[in-house]
């Protein structure tokens, strides 16, 4: 039993019990209201640079399973919970969350009044935070001096292109911090996937003669992503089916002239109702976003809104008026979360197959 | 168009039917009336709170198909609600649809297939197969070779049942192929049609419930999931149940969520549907075992746990609104009903068994748990960890039964422990704790009991905690830890051989104080407008004093044998009257099915155990002017008074006296006492069958002749005098004056049309006016709403449920009743 401390940039201190790695960590503290799927969440690369706090009180009861990895190593900088579960490691539960975090040098802290902290964060918005041994002046100085990188995409994206072969359509995924769920969904359609680094050039994409392009999800501020990514979108959306997810959705918006702004308070969870504008259907999906496409900036673009979060009226999906290109802010691959919007992949693959049938570019 | 809506009531309280249906009915009525429709309700439950409303048409008739058909014709009924009257209303609603065909009034939200699937497992399986949803594999066989074919397809184990059995029904579990032939032959010989049913056994699988709702536009929302600690094989009501679901990985959770949506769509239900799953922990495969299209204990638990206003929302949906058009003021100003509740606390439902009550009165019973419900009541514990929620739930269940004392557990031999691990009894949780103490490993126990290892780690933590407390008296850190995991001051005191007051003071002196957290469906994401709280010991407290002049009402707690529903009714009346008097009312209780938790009652609620330490903690925050406590909580009343609290006792006599001993009927005289003068209300008689109230027996002469007993206390209340018809063998005197049993209070209200407990409260508060005084002065000329009526104790099937085969003292044990006009 080791007491450690979670400290926030505004001076807030919480004492708790250490688990995971004993390291000192820094990151942006965000809360996630999902009741299931902690492993998928902490391995989702969008949380690079962030300390995740779960609002649901028990975390870890389902252990760690290979099928729940969204990347090879966890991306989070820290995990904050009320209770960490002890489990027996057998069957699919090959490892406990505690051991898993130790292996990957990620610290955790438990016995935190996560409800109080959530209520605090919903007022202050995202804050820098640190898990430390002593909440002294030195620790606060370090926390305040810390500058988080804005090069998350560069650090996470694959340095080299690689293939994820299949026997079906030829799909290029541009990796901005790709989560495995996207590849899993494409595999379900037996797509022949090539994953390209975020810095891929127009020629590199064109040389692969793709039937479809996925602009992946990823961490951080879309406005920091280099211009080349926008060029790929602008160039290929005109003739090749293109699907943007998360950060990829934000980039799709920017590439087409819309604005993306930072939210006052980030939203991470799976219980907001999202309306499909055309059918008026309501769906639920996993969301993880600190940025949002500015509603007013859509007007002068060739885009129209396909999905809206009813709780806060944020744009959750866009489509191009003239081209076979669309995007969603949420995670259509689920993993974790509700399965109803996995059909977005079916829709994309339908467009891909249609084009493939059509022959030449 | 204005509808004439018939609400089919649930009739008598019974096993699996506490007051949750009444809670729902009351709210449904409010919404239906708001839409301008007219409400007719048929029910014959004397303890129903809703039917004491004066703004609806109540028809007090037995819940039979003939009576309902007559009401439909006479009252020009255009629509029916069957989802608040439990399985009775669902069955009757289905029968009406079948009999009346196209001429039947529509059942709001439901169609015939789902109502049939609720009652008929075979039909459910067929429908689910059509929907391509996994269900228990089941096949008919008329000889041994067909049975072997089935087993080849299903794999062992299987359950063999005779079709149309002669005599008692039979279930044979076959785990070894060598035993199959004999089992099939035995079953075939017992079958009138010489057929057997072969089910693939799902014993040992994990039981999960999901409650989903749907609107007419096909939008679906998951309200929540509940996980049973015990596997299939123990009735779900008898298992400890936990929400939110703790042990399912996300892919499995999402698979079940999607399946629940598929089912509610497949059956085209508008409103709510509970879908029950059995999940094979080895493969994560599942089957659907049950669908429930009415408000039951699972829905009640989820309403309490999530703070989601389920009933008002669902009622609007069945009246044609969409989820998006229904506002829910619980969270933020502009939120609609479209939000999947997410929880940042843990709620545990704990069953109350009453084997002990029977045994201490010499009634033999069988403690073993199986697929038939044994529990008679429910409590819940809420906390921020499983340990805390469980500690509080156990405390709320209020074990004072000798079967559960540590000495008894110590005395169990190792063989008895093994026996009871494999064949669970009502003391399940204590045996599990004891087994851990004796050195069984978590994995051994998980294998033996099919309970997820996660829970054994939690139980082990509780054992460790008690050990730490015991070995470290008067240590601040230890008290902090103990409180963090939900141990009560009383338990700490017991472990330290100290007094509760000493522990409480020590805790205070060291600043270890409870923090209260709100129930709301967004886990803190949105600003909440909640008024329901639970305690924990963390850093932030969200509950501040409601006001300067408040009253605190303590609920009756979880139901036991006897008058649970009547007590719930009476305490709801107390709360309602306090509110009517303009007094800010704080309610405290721990039964998720209790009437007290309906949103219409109270300004603020605490879902807490009702031990002295829990009550004092709330009193310290709220500083109420007065505290109202039901009279059976003698220990609590005494402890509160010792702490200098002004306690108003809602006097009650738990039992109607035994009439089974001499099998005699007694005359009863009912009185109202205003604190100074005693007023005669009327007469009746009672026997082991029930109670008769009859205004006509009261003649002018009798009215003057009947004694007005001298009262010793100055507490206003309802009293009664019992007069035996003949001297008996025992020492019971000929005439006894005592507080009126709650059963009688409820029945008297229904018969006279007066809410007597409300009158008592007005006098207790000293708020009576000349209206009340005049009313009491003219009681003689009061025209009863029903001149003559009979209450009949419900013959709950104690033989089936608890294996009791002797005549019972109904005044003491009956858990429900009906009444009718004579």
UniProtKB/TrEMBL annotation, chain A:
Residue ranges annotated for the Carbamoyl-phosphate synthase small subunit N-terminal domain, each copy included: 2-132
List of catalytic residues: 333
Enzyme Commission number(s) of this protein: 6.3.5.5
Region annotation CPSase: where it falls in the sequence: 1-170
Keyword field contains NAD: no
Pathway assigned in UniProt: Amino-acid biosynthesis; L-arginine biosynthesis; carbamoyl phosphate from bicarbonate: step 1/1; Pyrimidine metabolism; UMP biosynthesis via de novo pathway; (S)-dihydroorotate from bicarbonate: step 1/3
Reaction equation(s) it catalyzes: L-glutamine + H2O = L-glutamate + NH4(+); hydrogencarbonate + L-glutamine + 2 ATP + H2O = carbamoyl phosphate + L-glutamate + 2 ADP + phosphate + 2 H(+)
Family, per entry: Belongs to the CarA family.
Pfam families named among the record's database cross-references: CPSase_sm_chain (PF00988), GATase (PF00117)
Protein name: Carbamoyl phosphate synthase small chain
Ligand binding (L-glutamine): 218, 220, 247, 291
Keyword set, alphabetical order: Amino-acid biosynthesis, Arginine biosynthesis, ATP-binding, Glutamine amidotransferase, Ligase, Nucleotide-binding, Pyrimidine biosynthesis
Function: Small subunit of the glutamine-dependent carbamoyl phosphate synthetase (CPSase). CPSase catalyzes the formation of carbamoyl phosphate from the ammonia moiety of glutamine, carbonate, and phosphate donated by ATP, constituting the first step of 2 biosynthetic pathways, one leading to arginine and/or urea and the other to pyrimidine nucleotides. The small subunit (glutamine amidotransferase) binds and cleaves glutamine to supply the large subunit with the substrate ammonia.
Top-level EC class: ligase
Alphabetical list of CDD domains matching this protein: GATase1_CPSase
Subunit structure: Composed of two chains; the small (or glutamine) chain promotes the hydrolysis of glutamine to ammonia, which is used by the large (or ammonia) chain to synthesize carbamoyl phosphate. Tetramer of heterodimers (alpha,beta)4.
Annotated Gene3D superfamilies: 3.40.50.880, Carbamoyl-phosphate synthase small subunit, N-terminal domain (3.50.30.20)
TrEMBL record, chain B:
UniProt key word Transcription: no
PROSITE patterns in the record: ATP_GRASP (PS50975)
Keywords: ATP-binding, Ligase, Manganese, Nucleotide-binding, Repeat
Name of the top EC class for this enzyme: ligase
Superkingdom assignment: Bacteria
Catalytic reaction annotation: hydrogencarbonate + NH4(+) + 2 ATP = carbamoyl phosphate + 2 ADP + phosphate + 2 H(+)
Domain named ATP-grasp: residues: 125-319
Cofactor: Mn(2+); Mg(2+)
PANTHER family xrefs: CARBAMOYL-PHOSPHATE SYNTHASE [AMMONIA], MITOCHONDRIAL, CARBAMOYLTRANSFERASE FAMILY MEMBER
Family per similarity comment: Belongs to the CarB family.
Listed name of the protein: carbamoyl-phosphate synthase (ammonia)
Organism: Weissella sagaensis
């Amino acid at each position: 039993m080791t007491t450690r401390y979670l400290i926030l940039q505004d001076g807030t201190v919480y004492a708790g019990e250490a688990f995971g790695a004993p390291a000192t960590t820094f990151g942006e503290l965000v809360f996630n209201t999902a009741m299931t799927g902690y492993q998928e969440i902490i391995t989702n690369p969008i949380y690079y640079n962030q300390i995740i706090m779960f609002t649901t009180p028990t975390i870890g009861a389902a252990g760690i399973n290979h099928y729940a990895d969204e990347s090879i190593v966890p991306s989070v900088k820290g995990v904050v919970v009320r209770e960490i579960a002890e489990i027996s490691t057998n069957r699919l539960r090959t490892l406990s969350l505690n051991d898993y975090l130790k292996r990957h040098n990620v610290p955790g802290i438990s016995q935190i009044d996560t409800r109080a902290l959530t209520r605090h964060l919903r007022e202050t918005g995202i804050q820098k935070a640190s898990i430390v041994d002593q909440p002294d002046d030195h620790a606060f100085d370090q926390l305040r001096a810390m500058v988080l990188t804005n090069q998350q995409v560069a650090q996470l994206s694959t340095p080299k292109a690689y293939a994820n072969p299949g026997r079906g359509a030829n799909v290029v995924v541009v990796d901005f911090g790709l989560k495995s769920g996207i590849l899993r969904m494409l595999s379900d359609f037996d797509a022949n996937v090539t994953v390209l680094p975020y810095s891929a050039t127009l020629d590199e994409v064109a040389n692969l003669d793709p039937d479809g392009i996925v602009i992946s999800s990823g961490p951080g501020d879309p406005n920091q992503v280099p211009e080349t990514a926008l060029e790929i979108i602008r160039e290929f959306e005109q003739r090749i089916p293109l699907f943007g997810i998360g950060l990829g959705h934000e980039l799709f918006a920017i590439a087409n002239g819309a604005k993306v702004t930072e939210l006052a308070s980030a939203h991470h969870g799976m219980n907001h109702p999202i309306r499909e504008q055309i059918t008026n259907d309501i769906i639920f999906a996993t969301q993880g976003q600190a940025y949002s496409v500015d509603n007013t900036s859509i007007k002068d673009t060739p885009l129209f809104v396909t999905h809206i979060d009813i709780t806060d009226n944020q744009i959750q999906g866009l489509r191009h008026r003239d081209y076979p290109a669309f995007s969603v802010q949420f995670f259509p691959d689920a993993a974790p979360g509700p399965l109803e919007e996995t059909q977005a992949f079916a829709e994309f693959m339908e467009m891909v197959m249609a084009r493939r049938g059509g022959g030449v570019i | 168009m204005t509808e004439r809506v018939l609400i089919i009531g649930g009739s008598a309280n019974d096993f699996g039917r506490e007051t949750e249906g009444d809670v729902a009915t009351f709210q449904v009525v409010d919404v239906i009336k708001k839409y301008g429709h007219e409400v007719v309700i048929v029910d014959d439950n004397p303890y129903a709170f809703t039917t004491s409303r004066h703004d609806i048409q109540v028809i007090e008739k037995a819940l039979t198909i003939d009576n309902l058909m007559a009401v439909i014709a006479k009252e020009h009924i255009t629509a029916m609600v069957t989802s608040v009257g439990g399985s009775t209303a669902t069955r009757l609603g289905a029968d009406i649809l079948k009999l009346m065909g196209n001429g039947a009034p529509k059942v709001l939200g439901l169609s015939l297939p789902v109502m049939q699937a609720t009652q008929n497992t075979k039909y459910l399986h067929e429908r689910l197969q059509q929907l391509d949803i996994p269900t228990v594999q089941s096949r008919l066989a008329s000889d041994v070779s067909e049975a072997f074919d089935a087993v080849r397809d299903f794999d062992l184990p299987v359950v063999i049942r005779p079709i149309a059995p002669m005599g008692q029904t039979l279930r044979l579990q076959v785990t070894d192929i060598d035993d199959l032939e004999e089992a099939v032959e035995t079953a075939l010989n017992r079958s009138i049609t010489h057929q057997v049913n072969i089910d693939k056994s799902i014993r040992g699988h994990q039981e999960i419930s999901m409650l989903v709702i749907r609107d007419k536009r096909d939008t679906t929302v998951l309200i929540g999931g509940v996980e049973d600690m015990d596997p299939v094989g123990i009735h779900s009501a008898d298992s400890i149940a936990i929400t939110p679901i703790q042990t399912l990985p996300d892919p499995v959770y999402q698979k079940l969520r999607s399946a629940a949506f598929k089912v509610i769509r497949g059956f085209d239900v508008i409103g709510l549907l509970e879908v029950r799953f059995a999940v094979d922990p080895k493969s994560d495969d599942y089957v659907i075992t049950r669908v429930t299209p009415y408000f039951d204990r699972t829905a009640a638990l989820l309403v309490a746990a999530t703070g989601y206003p389920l009933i008002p929302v669902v009622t609007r949906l069945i009246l044609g609104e969409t989820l998006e058009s229904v506002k829910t003021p619980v969270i933020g100003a502009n939120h609609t009903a479209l939000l999947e509740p997410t929880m940042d606390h843990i709620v545990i439902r704990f069953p109350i068994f009453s084997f002990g009550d029977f045994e201490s009165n010499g009634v033999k019973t069988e403690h073993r748990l199986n697929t038939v419900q044994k529990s008679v009541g429910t409590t819940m514990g809420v906390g921020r960890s499983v340990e805390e929620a469980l500690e509080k739930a156990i405390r709320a269940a209020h074990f004072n039964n000798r079967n559960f004392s540590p000495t008894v557990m110590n005395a169990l031999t190792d063989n008895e422990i093994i026996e009871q691990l494999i064949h669970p009894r009502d003391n399940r949780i204590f045996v599990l704790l004891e087994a851990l103490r004796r050195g069984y490993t978590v994995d051994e126990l998980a294998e033996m009991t099919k309970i997820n290892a996660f829970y054994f780690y939690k139980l082990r933590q509780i054992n460790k905690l008690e050990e730490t407390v015991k070995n470290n008296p008067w240590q601040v850190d230890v008290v902090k830890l103990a409180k963090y995991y939900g141990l009560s001051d009383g338990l700490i005191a017991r472990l330290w051989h100290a007094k509760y007051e000493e522990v409480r003071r020590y805790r205070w002196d060291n600043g270890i104080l409870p923090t209260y957290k709100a129930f709301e469906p967004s886990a803190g994401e949105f600003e909440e407008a909640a008024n329901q709280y639970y305690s924990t010991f963390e850093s932030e407290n969200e509950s501040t004093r409601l006001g300067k002049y408040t009253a605190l009402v303590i609920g009756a707690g979880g139901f036991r044998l006897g008058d649970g529903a009547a007590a719930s009714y009476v305490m709801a009346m107390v709360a309602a009257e306090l509110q009517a008097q303009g007094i800010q009312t704080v309610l405290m209780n721990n039964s998720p099915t209790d009437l007290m938790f309906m949103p219409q009652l109270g300004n603020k609620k605490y879902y807490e155990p009702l031990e002295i330490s829990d009550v004092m903690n709330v009193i310290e925050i709220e500083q109420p002017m007065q505290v109202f406590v039901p009279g059976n909580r003698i220990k609590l009343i005494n402890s509160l008074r010792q702490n200098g609290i002004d306690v108003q006792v809602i006097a009650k006599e738990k039992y109607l006296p035994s009439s089974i001993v001499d099998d005699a009927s007694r005359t009863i005289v009912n009185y109202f006492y205003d604190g100074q003068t005693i007023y005669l209300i009327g007469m009746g008689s009672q026997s082991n069958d029930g109670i008769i109230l009859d205004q006509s027996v009261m003649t002018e002469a009798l009215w003057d002749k009947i004694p007005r007993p001298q009262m010793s206390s100055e507490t206003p209340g309802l009293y009664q005098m019992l007069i035996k018809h003949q001297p008996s063998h025992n020492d019971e005197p000929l005439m006894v004056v005592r507080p009126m049993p709650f059963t009688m209070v409820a029945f008297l209200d229904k018969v006279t049309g007066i809410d007597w407990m409300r009158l008592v409260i007005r006098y207790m508060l000293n708020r009576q006016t000349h209206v009340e005084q005049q009313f009491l002065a003219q009681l003689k000329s009061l025209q009863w709403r029903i001149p003559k009526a009979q209450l009949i104790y419900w013959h709950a099937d104690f033989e089936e449920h608890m294996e009791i085969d002797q005549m019972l003292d109904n005044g003491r044990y009956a858990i429900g009743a009906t009444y009718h006009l004579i």
